Amino acid sequence: MTRLTGKHALLTGAAGGIGLAVATAYLHEGAQCTVADIGKSPRPELAALMASHPDTLLYVPTDVTRSADIDALITAASSRFGAITTLYNNAAIFDMAPLLESDEAMYDKIFAVNVKGAFFIMQKVLAHMVAQQVQGGAVVNMASQAGRRGEALVSHYCASKAAIISYTQSAALAMAPHKIRVNGIAPGVIATPMWKHVDALFAKYENLPIGEKKKRVGEAVPLGYMGDPTDICGAAIFLASDEASYITAQTLNVDGGSVMS
Predict the structure, then answer these.
(1) Helical H runs in 144-232?
(2) Does 157 qualify as catalytic in the annotation?
(3) Where in this chain does the record put each Ketoreductase domain (predicted)?
(4) pTM score, two decimals?
(5) Pick the catalytic residue: 26, 88, 157, 167?
(6) Domain range 8-190+228-254, CATH class
């Protein structure tokens, strides 16, 4: 359990769900972790993790849509644990509506977090890595199977995650001369707390009973079930580790076989 020993990982969107699972896994693999989320104080699950890792885990409230917040996050992280060697770029939001009913406010909100926020935290952390001459630097961007194909009710979210896949490729090529790797993960349907909100939206727009959409999407996965947040951890550890030292510009599908590429 020492594959990330000596690394300092910065994780966004890490107060719960996949982000919290990956932060826990990174700590268990020996990393020092700075975790960021929108809340002024950590949620109970994260607070409990902090209590058990007081010397290796720092929480910094951060709105990734605000450049000043990103700068403050990087400063706080590097002041506590030194140069950032790993970015797990996970902060994102979800919403949906029929294409002809989707308004500008929904578009602006989704793209502000999922694209603008993700890009500029990646850019600023990469600039930090270059300035600090980080050896073995790695970025893991969180995309989605939604970024692989459009969906009638989920146009903005799908487009935002497609942008993450594209930015991952571009950033990987830009950072290759610095020997900093940039990869992504495209999860499939994962049973996070957010799915209660997602299921309710599908119930509204597809006239389904609550819980039916979640049941159907799980059954549609080739492996036959929805994933758990911990199912993302193996890929997240691998891509952050030196074991993936010759892998860059890739987005790995972790989706039970839903997308083949």
Answers:
(1) 155-175, 194-206, 212-220
(2) yes
(3) 7-198
(4) 0.97
(5) 157
(6) alpha beta
